[in-house]
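Researcher: Batch entry, complex prediction.
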Amino acid sequence: MEEPRIGVFVCHCGINIGGVVNVPEVVEYAKTLPNVPWAEGNLYTCSEAGLSSIKDAVKKNGLNRVVVASCTPRTHEPLFRSTCEEAGLNKYLFEMANIREQCSWVHSHEPEEATTKAKDIVRMAVARARWLEPQDEPEVDVTDSAMVIGGGISGLMAAASLATQGFKVHLVEKEPQLGGITRRLGKIYPTLQDSSEIVDPIIKAATSNENIQIYTSATLKDVSGYVGNFKVAFKKGTEDVKLDVGTIVLASGALNYEPPKGSFQYGVLDKVVTQLHLEEMLAQGKLAEPERVLMIQCVGSRTGEVWTYELSDMTQSFAARLLSKILGAKKEEGWPYCSKICCMNAIKNAIRIKELWPKAHVDILFSDLRTYKEYEDFYRKARAMEVKFIRYIREIPPEITEAPDKKLKVAVYDTLAGVETEFLCDLVVLSTPLCPSKEDVMLARMLKVPLGPDGFFMEAHPKLRPVDCQSDGIFIAGTACGPRDIPESIISAKAAAARASILMANKKLKTEALTADVNTDLCIGCGLCEELCPYGAHKIEGGKSKTIAALCRGCGVCGADCPRHAITMRHYSDRQILAQVEAMMAK
Amino acid sequence: MSEIQSIPSAGDTARDESASFDPRILVFTCNWCSYAGADLAGTSRLQYPANARIIRTMCSGRIDPAFVLEALRDGADGVLVTGCHPGDCHYVKGNFRAEKRFNFLKMALKQLGVEEDRVRLAWISAGEGEKFSLLVRDMTNKVRELGPNPFKAPNIKST
Amino acid sequence: MEKSALVIGAGIAGIQASLDLANRGVKTYLVEKSPSIGGRMAQLDKTFPTMDCSICILAPKMIECFRHPNIELLTYSEVKEVHGSAGDFTVKVVKKPRYVQADKCVGCGTCADHCPVELPNEFDSGMGIRKAIYLPFPQAVPRVYTVDKDHCLDCGLCKSVCNAQAVDLEQQPVELELHVGGIVVATGFDVYEPLRITSYGYGRYKNVITAMQLERLLSASGPTGGRIMRPSDGRIPRTVAFLQCVGSRDQRFGYPYCSSICCKYAVKDAVLIKEHRPDSEVYIFYIDLRVFGKGFQEFANRAKKEFGVKFVRSSPGEIREDTETKDLTLWYEDTLTRTVKSLKVDLVVLSAALMPRSDSVELARILGIDTDRFGFLVASDSLRHPVDTQVPGIVGCGYCLGPRTGDIPDSVMQAGAAAARLSEILMAGSV
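Model: Structure tokens for the complex:
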């Protein structure tokens, strides 16, 4: 390594630093440090004058490292790094010492102590700077084609968006036909359009786009590689297809949950069906005019929900009944989350029944009615059409028994009226959630993306990266991520396409420069790094750890844990950090 | 892991007048949370004792217990390791790893006779400027009571 | 075809749309009316259901916008005129004078320390104070002070103490003419002020506040440093009641729609209050508890089980104030037990409706796009083209399009969809 020649630039920042810290004293002190042939003070180092001064000093004094003692690196580090590059230095040969936010501004009544601290901070920064090394910013090529897994409306919309932007898309669908679960719906809320009005144009847009290659009846077999460079293999019929793609959009959808046999008499009495069955019955004209249809919400969802009750407020008999139900309750089958769309879906089907047969009674038994946003109008419309909404509590679920004349008797405690009620109905419809498919586990393993606690695919960050997977280059669209309605699925599909297009449009991807570097001579292949890395950046191959630089984010967990100290973290090496530690107490 | 127990009023003077020595506290911070929290203390002009010296890494998961031991060997009177709150780690779970290592370290330090309050772990988010300042104040006061670091190697000059 | 875009509004939706477009290679002008980017998300303490510190996850995105070579930030600026069509819009933007030169100001705050004028801070929803020369919040981007000329005394003190000579009280507005290929509208929402719901006493009783005001009290960098000090006496409340659907789902006051996120944020705020003061009693009065979507039902369960938040299905009829203690009494009917009860609380938080911004209709007029009867933008087809407006080349994202799912991931996804739509138009001419 060349001998370090470090320039130190101490900023006054007007009076922000200079008004507390004795800057000239710190400059003089810096000059006494080994390897510091140049130190100066600036009024505002970040100004044009300050930056020019840095460049001049580097040239005139043959400096090969720069330390700026000023504000927090979180504001101007990129600016100063660029300045170093302009002066001919690698940008990672630059170090900042925070003597404003972490010194002058927090010790403004103790100028002596602040000045001592500023000297210490500069000494530590110089100590680190001695050990800094130039770093490369590696680039990987990005194949500019994408694979979309799933040919429902989300997959199709994502494919169409990418194809319109000029990217080649390979869409893989395991069923023989496209359209996913939306195809099985009769009508769509809240417009009550036919689902074909939504699905058909979306299918046409995808099938007619020459940039999209569609493979139906195809099953995914293997995915390997990393962002920009995925190798995928799938089987279509008897044919094996292998492709290289740059990005993947996962749009594998969700299933409609079928309650276990016996739950609300499902599978026992054939007049108990799910909402999806009802859709199909209505679409195929298989439902004769009913006298009464009763719908039950939240069947198989919101399981394990907790409620608290003030028993003292209730009548003794009711309290006793409630207690016995709670204590005697079996573990509910199903899913803990709320599936978001079932309330609207039930109301939609209720309205359809009322439109077909205005005299029919339709009752919806609900726990919380979740008609959010402007769907509130849809709820009002149903009430205006005399759909009845009855609130039950989940601890006292409705009971269904057979009744004469092929009817069903439903007994439920109506909490709003405060009475036990019984209905004689022709059909009981269970509103069940959208749930993940068991195949998702296999898909997750193949793509190396995690499933969330609810069984759906997990986003990289639930708030700020809702369509990114934790593994770079893979994006999620539609209900694969959780229950969603149609506009939300379409929005997520387009957002996933936007994210994928960014990678492919730039053709090259600059990956993190400050990554882990494994010394294979020291590595014993213990596999701890592979186990610990949240990004899958380490793989044990041939008894040694191999780093996929494109996936490494530079967190340093492997570097700290490697039992043989075989891993060096670029720019945050043990040597660099220990130099700072040692320098703290040195004089 | 030790957290601050009480919240002293912000009007306290920065230095205890009866102090016999001025402790040096080394604070490890992570780029995304605790370093930003320390910065926020600055932008908010919260005053705290000038006894801390901060080292920044990208993640608290980078902190090798050897760094803490080296700091004590070199004469640091206290060491504070800080990072993102559990669940908030920018690198998913680096802070969990830091905590795990730290717990082992504490067991080893206890056997060596290092006092409980000399080496601490705390979670500071980027929005917790006040918490950072109070933490440094609390740590400084506690370490001052413990006295200078008796473990530093003999050839290191004391402050 | 101009391969550039204008994004109006720099909350999380506008920020995300700008980043997605800029990363795609589209030169993006991000126009924001207020002095700093960040929007509503910057005002929040924590975000549900993950309880991330809101500004902590937002600030890196704000800085990314600021530094991005393809994004030009035009803060304290407004769109005045728009002409043209997809691929070729001409937009007149006015940069309002801050009376501080952005290239000289280092954001040190000496000016504000000396300014003699104190005003309620809009960012703190009126719960805190700012000066006439101010930074709206500590993490503001850009970190440049602004003079509120309407309340400035012209004393010149700020100018005299500024070491960087950044104050220029003669500064003039600057008119810019931008040529862009597409426009994204991301202007967000305002919070309904429930003054007309007189039975709740908002505006009369000091300890009846909106949820946004509570967020500012909870926020570590807010006016009380994160201590929930109730307005009348600064005491930390022991009993808190949240009232849901204040001005939402209402056909008399406010709006008939559901604002989509209030049940969720009430649960979050209730948990935060319990964390601040574990011995407190927190009640949420609701009609339907709308904690739908990923992780929310589970979050509500935790609130009940782990934190002991109490949920009462009821819409309280009246709130009365004890004129001495300023404590409040709620009168309500518990619909489960059908008993009428009263509850004495220290603080009432109203989950007020979220409504379109007051200037949304005017902006829509300038753009030539439709708004609904409330002032939200109308999508050209709410099912199939949920981010397109009636004008090709103009798309929307975020709460300005209406409540939708309403939360942050929803806004971020809509922003991505908006960016995708514009990319389709700008890169491939597909309108």
